Amino acid sequence: MPAGTRKRRRIQLICAAVVLLALATVMIGYAAREGIAYFRSPSEVVGLPDLGEREVFRLGGLVESGSLVKEGRVVRFRVTDGSHSLPVAYTGILPDLFREGQGVVATGRLVSGEFIATEILAKHDENYMPKEVIEILKEEGLFKPTN
To answer: 2-36: buried (b, 16+ CB within 10 Å) or exposed (e) per residue?
Structure first.
């Protein structure tokens, strides 16, 4: 093979490798986008009127006292950050630590003003609460450290 042909072949291989690498990067980014769930407080959700029903996110705060209602397998309650509260519906079995006045993080979607949760995580004290929830509760004056 002449030297010019080898050089051209090498350049073609490098270009093909760059195109494949770019394609793989785009595919990984698109796949990862589906797995990302942003954390939001009820006040942030109320402040985002254009939040689409397809967007999955995490809602965190405290389970509002007196809001827990069980209707068969569907559980309805309100999550509050002190300023705003948001209705939540969850179908399934709640964690043992779930109760009114405790911290909760729910993953799901906002549908017609109600948060439809697919996963509920209950927190029994601030040591296990996500730092975002603690920060929001501190801002609202609802966080009281136990130590």
So the answer is: eeeeeeeeeeeeeeeeeeeeeeeeeeeeeeeeeee
- Using alpha carbons only, give the angle 56, 108, 78 rounded to the nearest 5 degrees: 130
Neighbouring CB atoms inside 10 A of 69's CB total 11
Run of H or E residues at 78:
strand 74-80
Which H or E run contains 105?
strand 103-111
**Contact partners, residue 117, CB within 8 Å, separation at least 6:** 59, 88, 89, 90, 106, 107, 108
Numbers of helices and strands, H then E, in the chain: 3, 7
* pLDDT tens across the length of the chain (147 residues): 676 788 899 999 999 999 999 999 998 888 776 666 678 888 888 887 777 677 888 898 899 999 999 988 899 999 998 888 899 999 988 888 888 888 899 999 888 889 999 999 886 654 556 677 677 777 766 666 554
Q: For residues 63 and 80, what is the distance between their CA atoms, to the nearest angstrom?
A: 6
